[in-house]
Specification:
alpha/beta, 8-stranded mixed β-sheet, 8-stranded parallel β-barrel
Length: 807
C-alpha cells in the first residue's frame, strides 16, 4: 500500500511506524513543513497507562522514549499563600523535540521516507496514493480544503494563555493561582527533563488587557512573567518558542474521512492543555487507525470503521477537557474556598479524579478533606452538627431552616404512574417506605398534582381530595416513625405536557381518549402530534394559584417536612420561565423579569401558606439545551429571584423544555450547573442526573458543587444505597438501621470492609510503586513495573464491578 502522511508530528510518525512494522512492503512517505528539529511548545505528558500502549505496540521506540522521561508523583497547588501537595498521581513528561527526533529515528530504521521543509499545498500530486493521512496540526489547510466532508466546528475559548519554558527545577506538577489588581492568573507547570520545565500562564481576557499585554512582544511577556512570578521562579530563566498570547480552540469534526483521506491528531480534534492529553490523543489515534488496517484490507472499510470506533474515546477525552477548561476559566468563582476544598475542587474538576480515586492515590489528603469538611460543617451549623470523628462528606449533616438532614443523600422524585384518579396505591406506599429505611437524608415524592387537570398522565398522583391527603399522611407517618429520613412533597402542573399516556405506553404521546384540556403560557404543542394548549388567561392563573395554595395547606396537615414546586422539565411554571415556550406579549412574557412574574406570584402564595419554619424549594431547568433558550447564566438570575422571595434550596435539573432540544449527557452532567448556581446565586442546591455511586456523591459534596445529591435509578435498584455506603466507608453508625435489620448491618460492615480492602489492594497493585521509584532518579529509564498493569487492573475492575452490582 502506498501511504502519504502530511504532517510529521507524533500522530503521523507513530502511525507510519506501526504500519511499516506490520507490513514492510508498505511504501510510506512523510512530508513535514518545518525542519526536523522544529517544534512549538516544550514538553509532553503521558500517564502510565498510555506508556503501556506504547510498549505493547512498538517496544524499540518505547524504550528510547522511556529513557528520556522526567517522572513525578506529586501535584502542588499554590493558593493564597498555601501549598497543598497531593501525591500518587504518577505521570511523566519529556521534551517534545526529543519525542519527534526519537520517532524520526525509528522511522528511518524501518525504511520510512521523510521530507522536511516541504510545503504541501495540494493533494493532487498524490493521486496514486492508496491512503493519505493528514496530521498537519491545528491550522490544517487540508481540514479546511475538505470542510464539506469533515464538517469542522471551532470553539475559541475566552481565556488567554502563553506557552513558555523555564530552567526552574520543579519537584511536582505545579499549579499556581494568584489574584492581582488585574485579575486571577493560573500557572500550569511541569518538568520534562533535567534542565527544562513547561510553564503555561493563563488568565482571563479582561485581566490580560488590564496587564497591558494586548500588544506584548515575547520580551514584554518574559518581563511580565518574571516580575509577577519572581517568588516561584527564584531567579531562573524563562525560555520562549514562538510564545505569543493566544486563545485555545476546541476543534471537533463530524467526520474524519474524505475518500481515501483521514485526519488525525490536532487536525481532527483538540483537547485543552489543562488535562495534558493532546499528544496522547494524537498517538492513540495512530494506534486506533493502525488497528483498523490490521484487521481490514480495504482502505475505505478501515477508514469508515475508524470514523466510528474512535469516536467514543475521543469524545470522552474532549468532554473531560471541556469540563476542565471551564474550571480554569472560572477560577474566581472558587476564590472564597478554603485551601483544602479549593485543591479538591481543582483535582476533581474533569471527573477523572474522584474521592475514592484519591483515597488510593493519597489517603492522607482525603483524610484531611474529611477532617476539614466535618469541622467546617460543625463550625457553620453549631454543636448539633459535631461528629466524634471525621466522616466522608456525604455523611455530614445539613440544615434548611429548622429541618435537619442526617446526610447529603436524596431520593430523587420518580414518577410511578400508578395512581388511581390521583390516589396513591399500595405500590406508592411500598416504594417510598422501602427507600425511607435505606438511610437517605431526604426523600422527595414524585410530582403530586393540585388538580385533576394538572396531571401529566392518568396515573399521576394528586393532592386535591381528602382521601388523597390521607394517603399521603400514611406515607409521612411511616417515614417519621421508622427512619431518620425526612420527606418532601414535590407538586406542580404539567402545563402543555399534560393529558398524555403512561410512560411505558408511549411517553409524551397524547391520550387517544379520556383526556382533558390543557393550558400553557402560549399555544405551542410539545410535539407535533401533541394537543395544542390553550393560552392561560388571568382567570386561569388565579385558579391554578388557588389550587397550589390548597395543596400546600394539605401538605402541611400531612406533616411533610418540606415542599418543592416543580419549575422544570417544560411543565407549567417552567414554560413561563423559558423564552422557548413563553411567547406572550403581555406582562408575563418577553424579558426574564416578565417571564418570572407568574412563577414568582405562585411561589409567594405557596410560601405564605407554608409554615415559616419549614423550608421550600423549587426545581429548575438550568439549561434548555437549544438556541434561544435559557442558559446556566439565566438560571443563576432565576435562582436569585426565588432566593429573594424566601426560597431555601434550588433543585437543579435541565432540559425537557422542548422536544427539539439537544442535550449533552454524561456522568454527573448537571453538576456544573449546580455549582454555578450555588456559588454565584449564593443558595443551597441539590443536583441529580447520571449520578450512581457514593464515590460520586462524596466528590460532588466535597468539592462544593452541591449541598445535596439526588439519585433516582440508583435508588430503584438499591433502596439501601446510603446504608451500604456507610458500611463501605466503615462508618455504619452514622445511619439508623431499623431494629429488624440490625443483623444485616453487621453483616454489611464485614462484607464491605473485605471488599473495600480488596479493591484498595488491587488498585495499589495496579499503579506504579511510587515510593520505590522516588528512591532513584526522577529522570531516565525505569523498570517495566511502571507500565505493567494488565492483570492487576483487570482484577480491580472485576472487583469494582461486583461491588457496583451489589450496590
Amino acid at each position: 500500500m502506498k501511504i502519504v502522511v502530511v504532517g510529521g508530528g507524533p500522530a503521523g510518525l507513530y502511525f507510519s511506524i506501526l504500519m511499516k512494522k506490520h507490513d514492510p512492503e508498505h511504501d510510506i512517505t512523510v512530508y513535514e513543513l518545518n525542519r526536523n528539529n522544529d517544534t512549538f511548545g516544550f514538553g509532553v505528558v503521558f500517564s502510565a497507562t498510555t506508556l503501556g500502549h506504547f510498549r505493547d505496540y512498538d517496544a524499540p521506540s518505547y524504550d528510547r522514549i522511556r529513557e528520556n522521561f522526567a517522572y513525578w508523583g506529586d501535584i502542588d497547588v499554590h493558593y493564597k499563600g498555601h501549598v497543598i501537595t497531593t501525591t500518587g498521581h504518577d505521570f511523566c513528561g519529556m521534551s517534545r523535540v526529543k519525542l519527534l527526533l526519537l520517532l524520526q529515528d525509528r522511522c528511518r530504521e524501518l525504511g520510512i521516507k521523510m521530507h522536511f521543509q516541504t510545503d504541501i499545498k495540494s493533494l493532487d500530486r498524490f493521486g496514486d496514493a492508496d491512503l493519505i493521512v493528514a496530521s498537519n496540526g491545528i491550522n490544517s489547510w487540508i481540514r479546511e480544503a475538505y470542510k464539506a466532508s469533515f464538517r469542522p466546528s471551532y470553539d475559541w475559548r475566552p481565556n488567554k494563555f502563553v506557552w513558555l519554558g523555564t530552567t526552574k527545577p520543579l519537584e511536582a506538577f505545579t499549579f499556581d493561582f494568584r489574584k492581582t489588581n488585574t485579575g486571577v492568573w493560573n500557572i500550569h507547570a511541569y518538568q520534562y527533563d533535567k534542565d527544562m520545565a513547561t510553564l503555561i500562564v493563563e488568565t482571563t481576557g479582561e485581566a490580560w488587557k488590564k496587564a497591558g499585554l494586548a500588544d506584548a512582544t515575547e520580551a514584554d511577556t518574559v518581563r511580565f512573567v518574571r516580575e509577577q512570578y519572581a517568588d516561584l521562579l527564584d531567579g531562573h530563566d524563562i525560555v520562549t518558542n514562538k510564545s505569543q498570547w493566544r486563545n485555545f480552540p476546541t476543534i471537533r469534526c463530524e467526520s474524519w474521512i474524505h475518500d481515501n483521506i483521514v485526519i488525525m491528531g490536532d487536525t481532527a480534534h483538540t483537547a485543552h492543555f489543562s488535562i495534558g492529553s493532546g499528544t496522547k490523543l494524537a498517538m492513540e489515534d495512530a494506534i486506533a487507525l493502525y488497528e483498523e488496517f490490521r484487521v481490514r484490507t480495504n482502505v475505505r472499510d478501515a477508514l469508515e470503521a475508524y470514523d466510528v470506533d474512535r469516536r467514543d474515546d475521543v469524545g470522552r477525552i474532549q468532554h473531560a477537557a471541556d469540563v476542565s477548561l471551564s474550571w480554569f476559566e472560572h477560577v474566581e468563582r472558587y476564590w472564597d474556598m478554603e485551601p483544602t476544598q479549593f485543591a479538591f475542587s481543582m483535582l476533581s474538576r474533569s471527573k477523572a479524579i474522584t474521592y475514592d480515586n484519591l483515597r488510593v492515590r493519597d489517603p492522607k489528603f482525603v483524610a484531611e478533606t474529611d477532617r476539614w469538611f466535618t469541622a467546617d460543617v460543625a463550625r457553620r451549623l453549631g454543636p448539633k452538627a459535631e461528629r466524634p470523628k471525621p466522616v466522608p462528606p456525604m455523611f455530614a449533616p445539613f440544615r434548611l431552616k429548622n429541618l435537619w438532614l442526617a446526610n447529603r443523600v436524596v431520593v430523587s422524585p420518580m414518577c410511578q404512574y400508578s395512581a388511581e384518579n390521583g390516589l396513591l396505591t399500595e405500590w406508592h406506599y411500598v416504594h417510598l417506605a422501602s427507600r425511607a429505611v435505606g438511610g437517605a437524608g431526604l426523600i422527595v415524592t414524585e410530582m403530586a398534582c393540585p388538580g385533576p387537570d394538572h396531571r401529566i398522565t392518568p396515573g399521576c398522583t394528586g393532592i386535591w381530595t381528602d382521601q388523597q391527603e390521607a394517603a399521603w399522611k400514611r406515607v409521612v407517618d411511616f417515614v417519621h416513625g421508622h427512619s431518620d429520613s425526612k420527606i418532601c412533597l414535590q407538586f406542580g402542573h404539567a402545563g402543555r405536557k399534560g393529558s398524555t399516556k403512561l410512560a411505558w405506553e408511549g411517553i409524551d404521546q397524547p391520550l387517544p381518549a379520556g383526556g382533558w384540556d390543557i393550558v400553557a403560557p402560549s399555544a405551542l404543542p410539545y410535539r407535533k402530534d401533541s394537543q395544542v394548549p390553550r393560552p392561560m388567561t388571568r382567570s386561569d392563573m388565579d385558579r391554578v394559584k388557588t389550587d397550589f395554595v390548597q395543596a400546600v395547606r394539605r401538605a402541611a396537615r400531612c406533616g411533610f417536612d418540606m415542599i418543592e414546586l416543580h419549575g422544570a422539565h417544560g411543565y407549567l411554571l417552567a414554560s413561563f420561565l423559558s423564552p422557548v415556550t413563553n411567547r406572550r406579549t403581555d406582562e408575563y412574557g418577553g424579558s426574564l423579569e416578565n417571564r418570572l412574574r407568574y412563577p414568582l406570584e405562585v411561589f409567594d402564595a405557596c410560601r405564605a401558606a407554608w409554615p415559616a419554619e419549614k423550608p421550600i424549594s423549587i426545581r429548575l431547568s438550568a439549561h434548555d439545551w437549544m438556541p434561544g433558550g435559557n442558559t446556566p447564566d439565566d438560571a443563576v438570575a432565576i435562582a436569585r429571584a426565588f432566593k429573594a422571595r424566601g426560597c431555601d434550596l434550588i433543585s437543579v435539573s435541565s432540559g425537557q423544555t422542548a422536544s427539539e432540544e439537544k442535550p449533552v449527557y454524561g456522568r454527573m452532567f448537571q453538576v456544573p450547573f449546580s455549582e454555578q448556581i450555588r456559588i454565584e446565586a449564593g443558595i443551597a442546591t441539590v443536583v441529580a442526573g447520571n449520578i450512581f455511586t457514593w464515590d460520586q456523591v462524596n466528590t460532588i459534596v466535597a468539592a462544593g458543587r452541591s449541598d445535596l445529591v439526588a439519585l433516582a435509578r440508583a435508588h430503584l435498584y438499591n433502596p439501601y444505597f446510603t446504608d451500604q455506603a456507610a458500611a463501605y466507608y466503615g462508618c455504619g453508625n452514622v445511619v439508623r438501621w431499623p431494629n429488624q435489620y440490625l443483623s444485616a448491618k453487621f453483616a454489611a460492615l464485614r462484607q464491605f470492609d473485605r471488599e473495600r480492602q480488596e479493591i484498595l489492594d488491587l488498585r495499589e497493585a495496579a499503579r506504579p510503586d511510587a515510593h520505590k521509584e522516588r528512591e532513584g532518579s526522577r529522570f531516565g529509564s525505569r523498570s517495566d513495573e511502571w507500565e505493567m498493569k494488565g492483570a492487576a487492573v483487570g482484577a480491580a475492575a472485576a472487583a469494582e464491578a461486583r461491588l457496583r452490582r451489589d450496590e
